[in-house]
Amino acid sequence: RKEVEQDPGPFNVPEGATVAFNCTYSNSASQSFFWYRQDCRKEPKLLMSVYSSGNEDGRFTAQLNRASQYISLLIRDSKLSDSATYLCVVNSRGSYIPTFGRGTSLIVHP
Amino acid sequence: NAGVTQTPKFQVLKTGQSMTLQCAQDMNHEYMSWYRQDPGMGLRLIHYSVGAGITDQGEVPNGYNVSRSTTEDFPLRLLSAAPSQTSVYFCASRNTGVDYGYTFGSGTRLTVV
What we know:
The structure holds two protein chains of two kinds. By secondary structure, chain A is mainly β. Chain A is built from no helices and eleven strands. In chain A, strands 2, 4, 5, 9, 10 and 11 form a six-stranded mixed β-sheet that branches. Chain A is globular. Chain B has strands spanning 4-7, 10-13, 19-25, 31-38, 42-51, 54-57, 64-66, 76-78, 87-94, 103-104, 108-112. In chain B, a hairpin with a 2-residue loop joins strand 5 (42-51) and strand 6. Chain B contains no helices and eleven strands. In chain B, the strands form two sheets. In chain B, strands 2, 4, 5, 6, 9, 10 and 11 form a seven-stranded mixed β-sheet that branches. Chains A and B meet through strand 4, strand 5 and strand 9 of A and strand 5 and strand 10 of B.
């Protein structure tokens, strides 16, 4: 089982829709969590950290469920410009190296 | 701040040639890493460093060398290029501490013919 798993998608949604992605992790020593966005042929960029109490940044909401070992990203009122791949990233205690999921592809169409 | 700077952005090599991909960061980050990204494979760690003078192997280190003589620079050397090394290479850095995420460079697109 991969340490960090994501549904690769693609999620194909119309503009204005609400879409949610989940990411499951298997390492119980996982301590901090992030969502990255990667546009086609570009580098991954940090979208937001995920805090235990959940956090929101504009149209984006991230949540953490430690009991079930998953994090989620909710995008409200999707824009065409939200089309990208969203990577889930996990840092674990005792490890210098983060674990990356393979990403979930989102396509927002008119 | 420039963040993480990678050069070159594009490179074509012939099989057997060697070259160095440059990576520099101006954020005083201790941790730096090199990744390659291939279609359908996600990001794979090549080498990483937790500080000047300290490097270690990642998931796919064969055919690559690194050094870290300063905090700022972390070059990746391809010893004898092979077509299997055709990929996009990303350098990334972050602060120490588990609560920090990586900042990535804009990548180097390498083709080996």
